Amino acid sequence: QVQLVEHGGGLVQAGGSLRLSCFASGNIEGLNSKGWYRQIPGKQREAVASITSDGATIYADSVKGRFSLENSAWNTVHLQMNSLKPEDTATYYCHGKAHGTEYWGSGTQVTVSS
């Protein structure tokens, strides 16, 4: 089992920055990928950014050049979000995958005002 806890989020003006952090505990040795998803009410959850155990990163086209993952230790993953836009407003979820099982944090709200 893996537990994921997010920190960060909040309200920011368009053009501003926020940093989300996710801390993993439990059987983190089995984690082979981790990252972030986001969801707007009434829409499907979408992948934002992820990193695999060999360091490969994937970013959604909508955030490339603005968001970046910081992987200081395998039990943490940070999402640095710059040049935020109102359309980035969503609940952001930390995500991890281990032995074919997906794990989710409880989510943290990011609101970008115009």
H/E series:
EEEEEEEEEEE
Q: What about the largest sheet?
A: 7 strands, mixed
| Radius of gyration computed on alpha carbons | 13 Å
Category by helix and strand content: mainly beta
Instruction: Report mean pLDDT, rounded to a whole number.
Output: 94
| Total strand segments | 11
User: Are there runs of 5+ residues with pLDDT below 50, and where?
Assistant: none
Helix count, DSSP H or I runs of 4 or more residues: 0
Helix content: under 10%
Multimerization status: single chain
Beta-strand proportion: over 45%
Question: What is the global morphology?
Answer: globular
CA-to-CA gap between the ends?
Answer: 40 Å
Structure in a nutshell:
This protein is 0% helix and 59% strand.
Descriptive overview:
The protein starts with a strand and ends with a strand. The protein is mostly beta strands and 114 residues long. The chain is globular. It has strands at 2-7, 10-13, 18-26, 31-39, 46-52, 57-59, 67-70, 76-81, 90-98, 101-104, 108-113. The relative contact order is 0.32. The strands form 2 sheets. Strands 2, 4, 5, 6, 9, 10 and 11 form a 7-stranded mixed beta sheet that branches. A 4-stranded antiparallel beta sheet has the order 1-3-8-7, with no helix packed on it.
Keywords:
mainly beta; four-stranded antiparallel beta sheet; 59% strand; seven-stranded mixed beta sheet
Helix-strand layout with pairing:
Layout: E1 2-7, E2 10-13, E3 18-26, E4 31-39, E5 46-52, E6 57-59, E7 67-70, E8 76-81, E9 90-98, E10 101-104, E11 108-113
Parallel strand pairs: 2-11
Antiparallel strand pairs: 1-3, 3-8, 4-5, 4-9, 5-6, 7-8, 9-10, 9-11
